[in-house]
Amino acid sequence: MARVADNSKLQAGRSEAAQLSMQDLAFGFFVGSTGTALMLALVIGLYIAKSAAGINLMPGPSPLHEYLFHLVP
Fold it and tell me: Rounded to whole angstroms, how far apart are CA atoms 9 and 50?
């Protein structure tokens, strides 16, 4: 009987330790959102630099051309 009680205490301790706090989740969301925004800005910046330099990676217009053409002078 003592083994069963000890095992249940161990499982309860594991489940409490495995739970994330709201602060941890908010921090993870913040880091993920910031990383996504930075990657998007990097892709747009590289596209503008490529277009300004006149580099064509494929024949015809780029797939991003219709979305980002108005940003390139």
Answer: 61
